[in-house]
Amino acid sequence: VTLTPLLQELINSLRCLPGVGYRSAQRMAFHLIERDRKGARSLSRALGNALEKVDYCTRCRNLSETPLCLYCTRPNRDESLLCIVECPADLLAIEQTTVFKGRYFVLMGRLSPLDGLGPEELGIELLITLLNQGDIKEVVIATNTTVEGEATAHYLSQLVKTRHIKASRIAHGIPLGGELEFIDSTTLGQALTARTEII
Ligand SMILES: [Zn+2]
């Protein structure tokens, strides 16, 4: 079976999506070109625009279309509280609980030496700059309760505590090995309310 070079290229490109193998990519490509060219055009436009305009917030590393994101610019947020999360989806999950009113820092990953993710990749330098500014009184570490998430939390708590800032970890309520973005708001809200200081 030979496909046209452009179709082949489309299939290969679709495989960059998580969990999409060759068969799925092929099905998607055929669907877009055969059945839904309007949808395909809108997808192409949205992807192009997002790629061009969505970047990282210069303060918290959240995804943003402006130098400072929504959460960093909102005046009603508590400057003395900083919540560290692994990814933007986790930030949204915490926002949905409406329990947390402080600001955020997004690691865009977790410490994972095997995957080449160290302090540099997680923007730790930027985090240190934030911590050194003196406004933050407490850091809530909300990395996932996976092995790597816990290791990251331990590393972060040391960074925070050496600067005489209170470090707290989100509490139980989250299943072990759980990922924040898949947890219901009530459980996550409970975990935030019952956070405990790391000693
Ligand atoms: Zn921000």
Give structural notes.
By secondary structure, the chain is α/β, with parallel strands linked by helices. It is 44% helix and 14% strand. The chain is built from 8 helices and 7 strands. It has a 5-stranded mixed beta sheet with strand order 4-3-5-6-7. Strands 1-2 form a two-stranded antiparallel ribbon. The chain is elongated. It starts with a helix and ends with a strand. The mean pLDDT is 93. The protein binds zinc ion. Residues 57, 59-60, 62, 68-69, 71-72 line the site of zinc ion. The site of zinc ion has 8 residues, from helix 4.
List the helices and strands and how they pair.
Elements (H helix, E strand, L loop, with lengths): L4 H10 L7 H14 L1 H17 L1 E2 L6 E2 L5 H4 L4 E8 L2 H10 L4 E5 L17 H9 L5 E4 L5 H15 L4 E4 L15 H9 L2 E2 L2
Please give a handful of descriptors for the protein shown.
single chain; 199 residues; alpha/beta; five-stranded mixed beta sheet; two-stranded antiparallel ribbon; 8 helices; 44% helix; binds zinc ion
Short account of what is shown:
With 199 residues, the chain is α/β, with parallel strands linked by helices. Helix content is 44%, strand content 14%. It binds zinc ion.
Total beta strands: 7
Q: Strand arrangement, largest sheet?
A: 4-3-5-6-7
Element string (H = helix, E = strand): HHHEEHEHEHEHEHE
Would you tell me the structural class of the helices and strands?
alpha/beta
How much of the polypeptide forms β-strand, as a percent range? 5-15%
C-alpha Rg (nearest Å): 20 Å
Mean pLDDT metric: 93
Shape call: elongated
Give the termini separation.
63 Å
Bound molecules: zinc ion
The parts where pLDDT drops under 50 for at least 5 residues are none
Number of separate helices? 8
What does the main sheet amount to?
5 strands, mixed
Helix content: 40-55%
